[in-house]
Write a structure and sequence with these properties.
transport; globular; binds adenosine-5'-diphosphate; 4-stranded antiparallel β-sheet; AAA+_ATPase; 6-stranded mixed β-sheet; ATP binding; about 30% strand; alpha/beta
């Protein structure tokens, strides 16, 4: 069944130079368990789209439906979000960072710790639960952010160039790890990147966006054998 549906989604920004169409009547749908990448040049509206999907931004027209319901505000129980930089809290340990969204919704502390620990193990950081972000590498910080994105067990992961800041080797490893997590957890993933190769390697469908104004110009179904 369909978990994400984007219908005629448009976003206009008003600037001093006048109105600017960042997205123009975008439509697409993502099936449960799908791994869809969105690729496109800088400025085509990828981040705008992600913010609309998370409910952080309001569309000018059109709508985003998650499980058939229009998104009007962030839905952390349904969508986990990950950005280019890991945005961890520097004074908290890896475990505390991962558990943080649970503390915000009043979950039991002991239970939250155990859940955070399990997720850190899942992303290969079982030996680093007490490290603070500054004591971890870029790739490790990004893995902590992935664990945090999973902590409330959302069915959907929205990722905005999550590996862009990493060196190529680490990015490759993170891609492999994400595929593994996807296969283990059967989440629906929307992955934004500007790298076409990475998109084709990782996802089952690639939506290519063009600019001026932002719209989908091509849909590439990928049928690669999975590791
Ligand atoms: P991408 O993520 O693909 O690089 P963005 O969604 O960040 O694209 O931006 C799409 C376009 O909208 C760009 O031309 C950008 O300059 C413009 N834009 C983004 N945010 C704003 C804003 N708050 N106000 C005005 N223009 C914006
Ligand atoms: P760029 O964003 O610089 O255009 P790409 O994402 O297209 O880079 O990737 C550059 C090279 O790195 C490609 O040859 C690709 O095979 C490899 N690569 C990068 N990231 C991954 C990944 N996550 N999984 C597999 N291969 C990757």
């Amino acid at each position: 069944s369909e978990v994400i549906r984007v219908e005629n989604l448009s976003k206009m920004y008003s600037t001093r130079e006048g109105d600017f169409h960042a997205l123009d009547k975008l439509s697409f749908a993502i099936e449960e368990g799908g791994f869809v990448s969105i690729v496109g040049p800088s400025g085509c509206g990828k981040s705008t789209l992600l913010q609309l999907l998370t409910g952080l931004l309001e569309p000018t027209s059109g709508q985003v439906l998650i499980d058939g319901i229009e998104v009007r505000k962030p839905l952390p129980e349904k969508t986990g979000v990950m950005f280019q930089d890991a945005t961890l809290l520097p004074w908290l340990t890896a475990e505390e960072n991962v558990a943080f969204p649970l503390s915000l919704c009043g979950k039991d502390k002991k239970e939250s710790q155990l859940r955070a620990r399990d997720l850190l193990k899942l992303v290969g950081l079982g030996d680093f639960i007490n490290h603070r972000p500054a004591e971890l590498s870029g790739g490790m910080r990004q893995r902590v952010a992935i664990a945090r994105g999973l902590v409330r067990d959302p069915r959907i992961l929205l990722m905005d160039e999550p590996f862009a800041a990493l060196d190529e080797q680490t990015r490759f490893k993170m891609g492999e790890e994400l595929l593994w997590i996807w296969q283990e957890t059967r989440k629906t993933i929307l992955f934004i990147t500007h790298g076409l190769t990475e998109a084709i390697y990782l996802s089952d469908t690639v939506l290519v966006m063009g600019t001026k104004p932002g719209r989908i110009i091509e849909v590439i179904p990928v049928d690669l054998p999975r590791p």
